[in-house]
Amino acid sequence: MSEPLIGQTCQAFASALASREPVPGGGGAAAMAGVLGTALCSMVANFTAGNKKYVGVESDIQRILCQAEEIRFQFLKLVDEDARAFAPLARAYAIPKDNPCRAEVLEKATLGACQAPISITRTSCKAIELLEEILDKGNTALLSDVGCGAWLCQAALQCAYLNVCVNTSALQNRETAEKIEQEMDRLLLLFSPRAQTIAAEVSRRLRKGK
Question: CB under 8 Å to 178, separation ≥6 — which residues?
């Protein structure tokens, strides 16, 4: 990977994703979905901040804006972190199967490949929490953007979850794998419905009276 993926144009990133190159892949796509979902949260906050109609929640909006920007930049970092983790994993798989060091190197690389999607999963949950708050405090003219953000962050969560599972399934240390999977299961079961609830509430409010 000669240049950071996040420095590419949207067209270049999509072309790289569609190619036969191993990165970016599902993990990078998950993180990018999180970037977009969180950016929508920031957009709603920016259109709310300084608006006299929402002066009562101004301090909350400023906090949400600050937190959303931190989360967005974390997602951006994770796009490239996920890609970087693939290189040692690819090298490990290339080690001849009769090499006595192969299993240990492969186990370490596989565990390393889990880390970025684990972080994407956790970061998605933080983004969903902010979208829950901006739903009731943000500028109602941007209600649909809150719903779109929720769907995108739910997609980031679910896609990252799958990228964790594909790696934990290959771990030989089942105790470590199960510990990771238990946390990921818990987060998915808790936050995926919360994202759906946001989107459903947005739809309800948009279609009221119909």
Answer: none
- The model's pLDDT over 54-78, given as tens digits with 9 standing for 90+, comes to 999 999 999 999 999 999 999 999 9
**One-character DSSP codes across 37-80:** HHHHHHHHHHHHTT-GGGGGGHHHHHHHHHHHHHHHHHHHHHHH
Q: Looking at the 3D structure of the chain, how many domains does it have?
A: 1
Flag the least confident range among 29-33, 83-87, 146-150, 173-177: 83-87
Quote the CA–CA distance of 56 and 158 in Å, as a whole number. Answer: 35
Query: What distance in Å separates the CA atoms of residue 199 and residue 204, rounded to the nearest whole number?
Result: 9
pLDDT tens readout for residues 16-38:
999 998 889 999 999 999 999 99
**210, part of any domain:** no
135 found inside a domain: yes
Question: Where residue 27 sits, what CATH number does that domain have?
Answer: 1.20.120.680
Query: Cis bond leading into 24, ω under 30°?
Result: yes
pTM of the predicted structure, to 2 decimals: 0.93
**118 lies in some domain:** yes
Identify whether 26 is part of a domain. yes
Domain around 196: 5-205
